[in-house]
Structures are given as structure tokens and as C-alpha cells.
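Inverse folding, one chain.
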């Protein structure tokens, strides 16, 4: 709305002009009144009474036998890897995986035994790089000490993926996380690693495990593990309306990104 000062001499107005001005003023008032009403607070009804948790079977005896060890919280110094600078970008991820494999040849295994094809391909990464199962590494400070960690993934048999996180420590590397699963996606959220895996026997759902650094344990622990419902990916036939032409090669811009997705937040 213009706020210019009125002229010194006001020209005479016709009846139609005065009527139009009066109507405009009434309309402006109605609009302003409507805006004020729309922004007011409205009651959402009575608030339900908060109920605290109820403890069931309070007389259960304490557990004395240790539970089954799934390997969470286990750390391991990587042998024969020196990193005086503390910069994990100077470490060769293939050499790191090979050093661990040399120290423990049975670490890449499934229910039926060692993944022999994976082991052989890791050992032959230098001679046959195209078949090397060690994927592109990522770097991110997951411990909060100002130094990036090395995040490595290894493709294995049975559509399994082995995930490893290495922390620079005392001039070398220490593995602070190890996990194997049928991984469908990995994301970085803050200083946590979110791993999405196929849910066995429950179609339409997936497991999501959030691994977070625990300073007291000096390891990354599965701080959150949940089963989440996911929407099925739409098929190409249903995503494109019937009768619409398929895009030609000329419609696709050159230099488009590859189909391989990067973990969110990775750098």
C-alpha cells in the first residue's frame, strides 16, 4: 500500500469515484479482518492424560549368564598399516582389507563357511582390479575428534556386503566397526552410520541399524535397530502414462550421473 502524502489541492471527485473508493475501503477492511481471524489460535480439543510406562513382572531375577556374543563393540588393530600423519586419505583401502584378511583369513564367511570367491578376489585386487570387491571408500569424522574415519565396503557372495570403519590411532588404523548383511543402502546422518538391509521373511519391510560412536567402549555400537515399512519402487510401465512415447536417446542429457548412488553426506 502506498503511503505518499496527499496533494495540497484535492481535485473534485465524481459520485462514481466516491462510491468506488468507499467500496475499496470496505473491501480492504474485510480482507484485513479475515487475515486476523485466520491467524488466530483455535482449540484442538481436550488434551489426553499422559500415562507413564508400567513395569511388568517386576520380580524377574537378574540375568547372570552372559548373552550370545554377536561381535558388537569388538575392535582390532590393523597390522602392517602405518599412518603417521593420521590422515586416512593416505591409506590404501585395498591394502587395509588385505592386511586384515592376512591376519584373519576366516573373517569373510557366511553360514556355509568362508566366502572363498571373495577371499580370492581380495587377494587378486592388484592383478585384476576390475574384479576387486572393495568398493570406493568414504571419509567422515564419526568419532568427533576432528579426524576423518575410513569407511570401506566389500561385496561378497550371497548378495552380502561387509562394512568396515577404521579410525586413525597411534600412527596406524584401528577397526571400530564391522558388519555383514544384505545391504540395500548406507547413509551418514550426523556422526552416525545408518545401514539399510533386506528384511528376511517380511516382504515390504527393511532393517535399519544406526551405528554410533561410543567413547567409553571406543567402538561404534548399534545404538538403534528397527524394522521399517518401505514403499515398493514403481515399475517403469506404471510410472509412465499409457500411450506416452518413450524418451529417445537425444532426450537424455550427456554426462548424466551414473546409477550408483553415494551415501548421503559422504564426501
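Residues assigned per position:
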Amino acid at each position: 500500500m502506498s503511503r505518499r502524502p496527499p496533494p495540497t489541492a484535492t481535485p473534485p471527485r465524481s459520485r462514481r469515484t466516491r462510491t468506488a473508493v468507499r467500496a475499496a475501503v470496505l473491501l480492504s477492511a474485510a480482507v484485513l479482518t479475515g487475515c486476523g481471524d485466520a491467524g488466530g489460535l483455535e482449540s484442538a480439543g481436550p488434551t489426553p492424560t499422559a500415562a507413564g510406562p508400567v513395569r511388568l513382572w517386576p520380580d524377574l531375577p537378574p540375568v547372570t549368564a552372559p548373552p550370545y556374543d554377536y561381535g558388537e563393540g569388538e575392535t582390532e588393530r590393523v597390522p602392517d598399516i602405518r599412518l603417521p600423519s593420521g590422515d586416512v586419505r593416505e591409506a590404501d583401502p585395498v591394502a587395509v582389507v588385505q592386511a586384515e584378511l592376512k591376519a584373519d583369513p576366516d573373517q569373510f564367511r557366511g553360514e556355509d563357511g568362508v566366502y572363498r570367491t571373495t577371499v580370492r578376489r581380495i587377494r587378486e585386487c592388484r592383478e585384476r582390479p576390475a574384479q576387486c570387491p572393495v568398493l570406493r571408500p568414504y571419509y567422515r569424522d564419526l568419532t568427533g575428534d576432528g579426524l576423518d574415519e575410513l569407511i570401506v565396503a566389500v561385496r561378497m557372495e550371497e548378495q552380502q556386503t561387509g562394512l568396515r570403519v577404521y579410525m586413525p590411532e597411534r600412527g596406524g588404523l584401528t577397526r571400530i566397526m564391522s558388519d555383514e548383511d544384505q545391504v540395500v543402502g548406507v547413509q551418514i546422518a550426523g556422526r552416525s552410520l545408518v545401514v539399510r538391509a533386506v528384511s528376511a521373511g517380511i516382504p515390504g519391510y527393511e532393517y535399519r541399524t544406526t551405528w554410533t560412536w561410543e567413547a567409553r567402549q571406543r567402538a561404534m555400537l548399534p545404538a538403534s535397530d528397527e524394522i521399517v515399512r518401505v514403499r515398493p519402487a514403481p515399475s517403469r510401465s506404471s510410472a509412465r502414462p499409457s500411450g506416452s512415447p518413450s524418451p529417445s536417446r537425444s532426450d537424455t542429457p550427456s554426462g548424466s550421473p551414473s546409477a550408483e548412488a553415494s551415501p548421503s553426506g559422504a564426501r
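Confidence is low (pLDDT under 50) at residues 1-34, 242-267. The radius of gyration is 31 Å.
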